Amino acid sequence: MASQTGFGTHININSKLDCSISGQYMLDFGKEIHTEIETDAIHIEKLDYSSPHGHLLITMSFNYNFANLW
Hints:
- It is built from no helices and five strands.
- The chain has a three-stranded antiparallel beta sheet with strand order 1-2-5, with no helix packed on it.
């Protein structure tokens, strides 16, 4: 299970080109699973406790309008 929130904006450079920047933070809930790979075996361990942990996602893109479709 996870929950996320984010924000973003568009910056118009000229009438055909813009830059989009957005960020999201995702908070995961649940029990973690740890794995170890050895030469002849894979060890999988599921932790007994649950703890929230999260990660940040950042996206930046440049968009160019080739045609005016609407």
